[in-house]
Amino acid sequence: MRASIFKEDLSMIFSESAEEVLEALWTEMENKPTDCVKLSKLRAMPDTKTLKELLDNGILEHCAPDEIKITKNGLAYARDAVRRHRLAERLLTDVLAVKSSLIHDTACKFEHHLHRGIDENVCTLLGHPRSCPHGRPIPMGKCCEDMAKTYAPAVSTLAGIRPGEGGRVAYLHTRDPKRAQMLISMGVVPGTEIRLLAGFPSYLFQLGEGQFAVDSTLASEIYVRVSK
Amino acid sequence: MAIVKGAKMTAETKKIVLVGQPNVGKSVVFGCLTGRYATVSNYPGTTVEVSRGNAKTGDHTCEIVDTPGLYSIFPITEEERVSLRVIENEYPDLIVHVIDAKNLERMLPLTFQLKLTGIPVVVAINMFDEALAMGMTIDTSLLSDRLECPVIATVAITNQGINQLIHTISEYTKHKAQTANHEWPPFSEHLMKEWYKRSLDICGLVIKKREKPRGLSRIDKIIISPFTGSVILALILYLGLYKFVGVFGAGVVVNFLEGIFLDHINPWLLNMAESYVPWPAVQQLLVGEYGILTLGIRYATAIILPIVGLFFFVFAIIEDSGYLPRLSFLLDRVFKKIGLSGKAVIPMVLGLGCDTMATMVTRTLPTRRERLIAILLLSLCIPCSAQIGVILGLLGGTPYVLVTWFVIIVLIFGFVGALLSWLVPGAKPSFIVEIPPMRVPQIANVLAKTFARMKWYFKEIVPLFVLASFLIWLGQLTGIFDKLVKAVSYPLLMMGLPASASPAFIFGFFRRDYGAAGLYDLHKQGVFTNNQLLIAVVVLTLFLPCITQFLITIKERGLKAGFGISLFVLLFAFLTGILLNFTLINAGINF
What we know:
The complex is a heterodimer of chains A (228) and B (591).
Chain A: H1 2-7, H2 16-31, E1 37-38, H3 48-56, E2 60-64, E3 67-70, H4 72-95, H5 100-113, H6 118-125, H7 142-146, E4 155-157, E5 166-172, H8 177-186, E6 193-198, E7 203-207, E8 210-214, H9 216-219, E9 222-227
Antiparallel strand pairs in A: 1-3, 2-3, 4-9, 5-6, 5-9, 6-7, 7-8
Helix pairs in contact in A: 2-4, 4-5
Chain B: H1 2-9, E1 14-20, H2 26-34, E2 51-57, E3 60-66, H3 78-89, E4 94-100, H4 104-115, E5 121-126, H5 128-133, H6 140-147, E6 151-153, H7 162-174, H8 189-206, H9 218-224, H10 226-276, H11 280-287, H12 292-321, H13 323-336, H14 345-351, H15 355-361, H16 368-381, H17 385-395, H18 399-423, E7 432-435, H19 443-478, H20 480-494, H21 502-510, H22 512-524, H23 530-542, H24 547-557, H25 559-587
Parallel strand pairs in B: 1-3, 1-4, 4-5, 5-6
Antiparallel strand pairs in B: 2-3
Helix pairs in contact in B: 4-8, 6-8, 10-11, 10-12, 10-17, 12-17, 12-19, 12-22, 14-15, 15-24, 16-18, 17-22, 17-23, 18-23, 20-21, 21-22, 22-23, 23-25, 24-25
């Protein structure tokens, strides 16, 4: 099913506000898996011009006068818009170190210029992140599937770098919140300097003056902005 | 609520709690303040229980409470909860936050958290010498200014700064304590980040100069590389355990002491009893075949104590060097196969010293699943130092049997572990452990720790050995003992063991090491063939955990788990014996 999404020809280009509406719909569907969404429920109420743009192009359709749903064709566009938005957020946070209060608005502008092809470059650069800074999943792109490891990403997991390499902790991505708490309590906090000392049989890293040993699961949940 | 009243009523004695991240030296500071010895080692998680002692500060006495290490006030492991309970429920008058000077940035966030409790905080920056040695200076008065609480530099192992700390404590406890606040915000990444940022800001001001972080030393590299690391481990096992504890301890020292008992003390006791104790029954109780003095005390002092003492000595050196956390780095992958993580290496290795101690240390494991698996494996197949020593003594003359015993126990450990990992529900464990720097063990601490543990062990076993002698004597008088010997001889027969071994197994019900000591005696009389020796030793290694370990298991895991584990272990031991006998006979193996 996933493969079909990538084969889709996403040739249409929409306005910034139209993309906003698609993202809002997608987010709403993530919160509650439904098809039809009340217009009033949306984060940003679409204006008539934007709504018409999307309806005319067969991206959205009405289920009731005040409810809309994304068409099968539109789903790929929504997914793509969300992906670009969240990648933009990651880029702004991890690489450009933009203040968190400014992230969302800047990302909205940024994503619009982050068109197909470029988004894959950014994704690869960031090491194919799986979630945005707010913890929402980033839909996978073709590049993530291919995991093209042709050049070293600027952000990599601790498990992905070689002993001797290091940088600053970019973010933690743990499936279990307890594990994140454990790491943070011990001092593995974004921004802290970290260096891998040994990668076998477990991972040993330096954090300030302290040294910690972790297993491969935890090591691949610590993302490092690598500096040589 | 009763606790609250109690605390208020004894308001004259102030309560001071030592709190801090693991392995910063809280127990050393505790020792300095109270003059009492609390076990000190070089790995996080040495202290898993609260120790209490009194200290004189100024005109009044203070109760000093040493707590297990704590990374944050949002506890994850059981031992962190133990510490937090002291802060929450005991209404201390003052918290002394002990900090590792080298890692100030990582430690200050906990200071901020401790201040949330509303209890006054004093910061003791310990291991100040190690920071200085790295070319790092900390402006303590500026730090005190920023933290808005007293900051004292200490080097607890050499007693530096302790007087100042006592002075500050007495100044602070003169005033009435503020009301403690028990409501603090829940864990959030956001708050944590803020605390770390604040910590970094402050450290940027107060830390003057620092060199590059320590990295890996040459010895680190040797220990943690899988190949050279295995060689080191094998060397430690061979020289420390086999040569020193086994050959020297269980061989030379035990033979010497046993000789003194059998040739001099026992005949003398027998003589004394015969001349001064007119009743034969009482003679029997004191100096008979299973007498309190001739058997109980002899086993305890001539066999068990020297072995345990030498073992604890070797062990203390290993503990203080910082080797154990590195071993967990090496073994994490292997331990994952049995449902545990590298963190469980420390309780398992401690179990080779004393399983009771080790059962308590399972508190450092983060999940219930890991604690259950670890406790069961400790009960089943980790022989304690006394057992290992006696077994090494027993099998020292027949290396093939010794190696076979070792292989069988390791296989059972792996097999039962894998089985439990498959059976016990719950998430897979994750592994994170702090690796302290390697340090040269201090001989004073090594000796103090060895003697403290020997004393504890001796106190632990003597009453039990005496009780065993007494019960056996009672059994002999009533004839129950003979029936019991006969009853136990049936399963022994199924394992191919002679009926004369059954008293040793009955000893084993009291303590496994007592049973092993019984085997040692029998073997000297030449009762066993090598095959029988192997079976007897394997069964007794797996045999019931000792009573103290059983009680601790109940305390840590509940009644059901305590009895369940014991029953399983007993059945497993006997079945293994029967199976082993069957296999040896059918494969025609004769050692």
